[in-house]
Amino acid sequence: MVAATRVFAARMAGLPVFGPDGESIGRVRDVVAGLSIGRRPPRVLGAVVELPTRRRIFVPMLRVTRIEPNAVTLATGSVNLRKFHQRPNELLVLGQLLDARVAVDPAGTPAVLVDVALEQTRTRDWQLSKLAVRERTGRLGRWGPTRVLAWDQVSGLGFAEVTGRPQGVQQLLAMFDTMRAVDVASTLHELPTKRRYEVAEALDDERLADVVEELPEDDQKDLLSHLDDKRAADVLGAMSPDDAADLLSELSEVDKDRLLGLMAPEESAPVKRLLEYSSDTAGGLMTPEPVVVEPDATIAEALALVRNPDLPVALASLVFVCRPPSATPTGRYLGCVHIQRLLREPPSTLVAGALDTDLACLSAQAPLTEVTRYFAAYNLVCGPVLDDEEHLIGAVTVDDVLDHLLPEGWRESGLPEAEPNPPPNREPR
């Protein structure tokens, strides 16, 4: 496949990055450009590449040998694995330029920037040569068709102008549509604060809730404080109760009570129950919304519940069987059915005939160390939590255990990277 000498930045988003021997390195998350002097096209410095561990690193354009429609290939040579940090003289093309409000010369017609082309020069450098813009046309101010213009035909792209004025988020949201919530959270974390707020305001409550659950704690609190109280309460209500409880527990008592009061009663009730437990106990770790059926339910009915695509994988591994009511706290807990057993039994069989009644249960007061040993001993990814009267009150999943076992700030820094003989400083850009 022929390598491109011109490529639009939005099409690079998410492209896989491969080394010279075909080894997978990560995915492109942004393009870094230097500030230009006057109206000259800016030089492209490199790409922000997200490793499988979600750490974002800077890869200089000198290391890029080919940009193809479906992949980016790097040249032979080491790549610095230090975490990417934007410098004061740099712009993130996807994060800061797209959706910028600009003017088309010479009439100064208002327009919005929808994409930016990277073009390789005769000296093998890359620069931002062309801009795809949509102008406002007619008395009603509708957006016209997309036009591709030279960099010097558009004004309003100075650093202060781009970073100071409000931007739209349509292009970013279009990219986020194809990304998992954890990847969107990683992207938001790296964006300048202004852009992070603009994106958060544009996301719907359900999507923003999914993303907030994956953000570092400081980012969660910052975003929540930026939103007005009603929107913040709506987002908390859309979050998993255990994640909402974790976030609320980090706020002051005044803020916590105010937001709980604004949440719908059916959404705040399970959160309030979780807040009664210490965060490092089974009660504080659990989710109050496991998969629960009554003993006269069939295998087919239980399988229908675990097929729900919105159900976390860990929660789908066990179906808990209880006397009515089936909402937590349930009636008397009878046992559980593992998903492998569900798949082996005839669909018309009752779940009561496939119960595992020997699996030990956790108490709400069980400390984190006991919960960890429980998962290791029974090779589980989900476990039941009972109260003193043998009512099911929730389930702990292994991801919540790992969240508390990993070092503080692990979401922000990613997992440790193997970096033998690291260079003392990042390569010059």
Automatic annotation (TrEMBL):
Which keywords appear in this protein's UniProt record, sorted alphabetically?
CBS domain
InterPro entries in the record, alphabetically? CBS_dom (IPR000644), CBS_dom_sf (IPR046342), Mg_transptr_MgtE_intracell_dom (IPR006668), MgtE_N_sf (IPR038076), MgtE_transporter (IPR006669), PRC_barrel-like_sf (IPR011033), SH3_actinomycetes (IPR058838)
* The organism's place on the tree of life at top rank: Bacteria
List, for all copies, the residue spans of the domain called CBS.
286-353, 355-413
Q: List every stretch annotated Disordered.
A: 409-429
Record's compositionally biased regions (Pro residues)? 419-429
Segments crossing the lipid bilayer? none
Q: What is this protein called?
A: Mg/Co/Ni transporter MgtE
Gene source species:
Saccharopolyspora antimicrobica
Taxonomy of the source species:
Bacteria, Bacillati, Actinomycetota, Actinomycetes, Pseudonocardiales
